[in-house]
Design a protein that fits this description.
The structure holds two protein chains of two kinds. Chain A is an alpha+beta fold. Chain A has 17 helices and 13 strands. Chain A folds into three domains: about 140 residues, Immunoglobulin-like (Sandwich), CATH 2.60.40; about 80 residues, no CATH class; about 160 residues, no CATH class. Chain B starts with 11 loop residues before the first helix and ends with a helix. In chain B, the strands form three sheets. In chain B, strands 12-11-10-9-8-13-14 form a seven-stranded antiparallel sheet. Chain B has a four-stranded antiparallel sheet with strand order 1-7-2-3. Chain B folds into two domains: about 200 residues, D-amino Acid Aminotransferase, Chain A, domain 1; about 90 residues, ATP-grasp fold, A domain (Dna Ligase, domain 1), CATH 3.30.1490. The chains are: A alpha+beta, B alpha+beta. At the A-B interface, α13 and α17 of A face α1, α2, α6, β11 and α9 of B.
């Protein structure tokens, strides 16, 4: 009896704490309970990391989005040791961190910008103020200059204004990548100017634009894709058509930038990151997160101590990881229900959760097909191996190697066929799959193929249900913004742990039961 | 009363009225409270179970050889030279996994009861698999046990196709609550697992007479392959079998357990293994919900916690006998 009261007490306590925090956040802080479909917000975080030398005065300057000044954005900067202020100069905005005696070691500084979903990229037309800019000649000479001039002439002939010239110039570079002129130019920038491969197009492009009399400079953008994880800023080109500055992506010259997938971080030709004094190995990475709650509520939550109860308190780069971590308990919950209340047999208790996590990252149908192909092929090779009478651990290890090779092979074939989705095959937990194959082959031999297939199918079915559950936007929203509700989930799991009723499968199993 | 839905399922209410115990109920109400974790090793390791049984003077199949290392495997065949028939099994196996029965030899080959032949190398590979933990709980390294092959009593071979039938007795607090005989069929390929098509035959605790038989959950009266009658067969040495079962409870101290025995033509009843997580199919074989047998025992144990083994057997035989029998 006492164990029962203890259980009831724990369940009530967990529910009270979980629901209490959640309702406080909802009613007092105004965090909506439903996933907002209307006004999601973007969070873009720039993380500057560098290695500080001891006691050397250090200044870090990071160019900020010019759009930050004119739109309903909220921004903040984080650092433990460095003093921060924002410096707005003529047409530019910079975050400046400084410290007189920084501690030795790696330092990270954060700058976060939040803004509502919108059409603008921050890279739209910007009117030229004051005198119009003049294109400085890049000062090329000899055959390089001649090659450049040829390229420019050709693009000039088919274009009507700076916009169409830009498009034709970069289309030409992309299309005629093996033409003599392009090769000469590329070699020049590689060998003489020592420009790295990834920046080549931008540096060369800016020079060509300037040579054609179009003022141009470098800009940086961030891709608004939460699935990318930490990303580097990618270079864009800003050019002036006489009255306006415009930002375009030279890799896709005929596509204009779209506000739903690109955010222009800095423009105006200033360097993205400058470190003065004792900083070495400095770099800036960006993390993008899509928040499902409106900006004003988010700010209120940030100001309260209950921030701690959400993963919002973490830096964006860590938050991206937690997006999936908070879903794992949900998968475990589904497994508990399907095993103890429904009674579906699975291979390995929590293998379906790992499978479901992999499905979350890819398309479900494709995921199931790939899983089936790998397991079937793996099983075939496993039976070939079994005739060699190998010891168990080497055999499973061999299975891991075969599964890996199969993955590589499938990726290559699908790449050739143009099926990009299959590349995500690497997300499958390989070791788990190898063990699944091993155990399946044993059941196959011991209890027949029917049982083996039933158990694998059961595992996949459980994984699919777990996936469908974890994939509900509302569920994901609660897991992210109300993680205290996991306490309620825990209470539910405890209750199921004491469930002594029949499993659904047993109602079927005992259908013939008759008293003699 | 037969209802239309009985073709597909039974309602929880119907099952509850018949006293059927489900897995969750078995675990939460009988296994977890009565079987402390530390006692599991006594039954999960067959070597230890056999040692305990021999201490108590119980008859068990004689151990010929324990294979513990690759070196043992290398010399195994030589040491097995004198034995015509034997059984190889993992010390920590469960559910009959990895059990290999050798019926006799033919030259260099080992012949299974089904007639299929094994070379010496294949036999060694099987032992290596056992050592590597292929069949053991949790996949840990294991030992292979080679022991006497039981020659079942004639009465029992008459109702089993090839494989040796074994007797399972489920006990609570040392009171036998239910018993069944598992007989192999052609379909089950000499194995005694009910879900693989073996026959479950309910045994009356009071008399040792078989009372009911089910195949795939359906009641039958004759063996599907041998056509021999399955009901009213007298299990030999029944009182001795119940004594062995109660002794197994005393030596393992497990509150809820299943004891597996075989009846040898020459040596009589032999204890094969003890199971700390006995399955639920025994209810189907007897046509009685376990709850109807377990509740009286729970009550009895509460009122008389210190009964002797003789008293326990007496209680089971008078109060837990088959319904049809008690009507007589």
């Amino acid at each position: 009896m006492s164990s029962k009261t203890r259980l009831v007490f724990s369940v009530l306590l967990l529910c009270a704490v979980g629901l209490g925090i959640a309702s406080y956040k909802h009613f007092e802080l105004g965090v909506p309970l439903k996933a907002g479909r209307k006004s999601p917000t973007w969070l873009v975080e720039a993380k500057v990391t560098f290695f500080a030398q001891p006691d050397v005065p250090t200044i870090v300057k990071l160019s900020l989005p010019a759009a930050a000044a004119d739109e309903a954005m909220s921004q903040d900067a984080g650092s433990s040791e460095f003093e921060y202020f924002s410096d707005s100069g003529f047409n530019t905005l910079k975050a400046v961190w400084s410290a007189r005696k920084p501690k030795e070691g790696s330092q990270s500084l954060y700058y976060r910008v939040r803004f509502p979903d919108r059409i603008k990229t921050g890279g739209g037309n910007e009117e030229v103020k004051g005198t119009s800019p003049i294109a400085e000649s890049p000062g090329l000479s000899g055959p390089v200059e001649k090659a450049a001039q040829k390229l420019i002439d050709r693009s000039f002939a088919v274009s009507a204004d700076p916009d169409t010239f830009f498009t034709h110039l970069f289309l030409q570079i992309a299309k005629e990548s093996s033409a003599q002129e392009v090769l000469i130019l590329k070699r020049h920038y590689e060998m003489v100017e020592k420009v790295s491969d990834e920046n080549l197009l931008y540096v060369m492009g800016i020079d060509l634009l300037r040579m054609a009399g179009i003022p141009a400079r470098l800009a940086h953008g961030v891709r608004l894709d939460p699935n990318l994880g930490p990303q580097k800023a990618f270079p864009l080109i800003e050019y002036c058509d006489g009255s306006n500055w415009k930002v375009k992506n030279p890799s896709q010259p005929n596509v204009s930038l779209r506000g739903d997938n690109i955010f222009v971080w800095n423009r105006g030709g200033t360097p993205l990151l400058e470190v003065f004094g004792g900083g070495e190995n400095s770099k800036v990475t960006f993390t993008v997160i899509r928040d499902m709650i409106p900006l004003e509520n988010l700010n209120r939550l940030r100001d309260s101590s209950f921030l701690l109860s959400t993963i919002l308190a973490l830096p964006a780069s860590e938050r991206a990881v937690f997006r999936y971590v908070v879903l794992i308990p949900l998968g475990a919950f589904v497994v508990v229900i399907l095993r103890n209340i429904v009674g579906i047999p699975t291979l390995g208790t929590f293998m379906p959760v790992l499978l479901a996590l992999a499905f979350l990252e890819m398309e479900l149908g494709l995921g199931i097909v790939m899983f089936a192909v790998i397991v079937a092929a793996g099983l075939y090779f496993r039976f070939l191996l079994s005739s060699m009478n190998l010891l168990v651990v080497p055999r499973v290890a061999a299975c891991v190697v075969i599964v890996t090779l199969l993955m590589v092979l499938m990726s290559l074939i699908s790449w050739k066929l143009g099926l990009r989705g299959v590349l995500q095959i690497t997300l499958f937990p390989m070791i788990i799959i190898a063990w699944t194959i091993e155990r399946m082959s044993l059941i196959w031999e011991e209890e027949g193929k029917r049982n083996a297939i039933m158990q694998v199918a059961g595992s996949v079915a459980v994984a699919v249900v777990a996936f469908l559950f974890m994939n509900v936007p509302q569920i994901q929203y609660w897991a992210q913004y109300f993680p205290e509700l996991l306490l309620v989930l825990l209470a539910a799991i405890l209750l199921i742990g004491r469930y002594t009723g029949y499993r659904l499968s047993e109602l079927h199993r005992f259908r013939n039961f008759s008293e003699s | 009363m037969k209802r239309w839905w009985h073709r597909w399922f039974r309602t929880p209410k119907e099952l509850r009225e018949m006293g059927v115990v489900g897995i969750n109920m078995r675990n939460a109400r009988f296994l977890l409270p009565n079987n402390p974790r530390r006692l599991y090793q006594r039954v999960d390791n067959k070597l230890m179970t056999k040692a305990l049984a021999e201490e108590r003077g119980l008859e068990v199949p004689k151990t010929y050889l324990v294979v513990k290392s690759p070196h043992d495997v290398a010399v195994m065949e030589k040491q097995l030279g004198e034995f015509e028939a034997f059984v190889m099994k993992p010390a920590r196996g469960s559910g009959g996994k990895g059990v290999l029965v050798i019926d006799h030899r033919d030259g260099d080959a080992y012949v299974k009861p089904s007639g299929s032949r094994l070379s010496g190398a294949e036999l060694c590979h099987h032992a290596e698999n056992i050592l590597a933990g292929l069949y053991s709980l949790g996949g840990n390294r294991d030992h292979a046990l080679i022991e006497y092959r039981v020659t079942p009593a004639k009465v029992l071979t008459d109702i089993s196709f090839q494989g040796a039938p074994d007797i399972r007795i489920v006990m609570l607090h040392g009171y036998p609550v239910m018993a069944m005989l598992r007989a192999a069929t052609k379909e089950s390929d000499g194995r005694a697992n009910l879900h693989q098509g073996a026959i479950g035959i309910g045994i009356d605790l009071a008399t040792g007479l078989t009372v009911r038989a089910v195949h795939h959950g359906n009641p039958i009266t004759r063996h599907p392959d041998l056509k021999s009658p399955l009901i009213g067969v007298q299990i030999p040495f029944w009182d001795k079998i119940l004594e062995i079962a109660v002794t197994c409870h005393e030596m393992t101290e497990l509150g809820y357990l299943g004891v597996d025995l075989m009846v040898d033509e020459a040596k009589g009843p032999l204890m094969i293994e003890v199971n700390a997580r006995p399955g639920l199919a025994i209810q189907m074989a007897n046509g009685v919900g376990l709850m109807k047998r377990l509740m009286p025992v729970v009550e009895r144990h509460r009122q008389h916690p210190d009964e002797s083994s003789v008293e326990k057997i007496q209680f089971s035989q008078t109060h837990l006998k088959a319904i049809g029998q008690s009507a007589e």
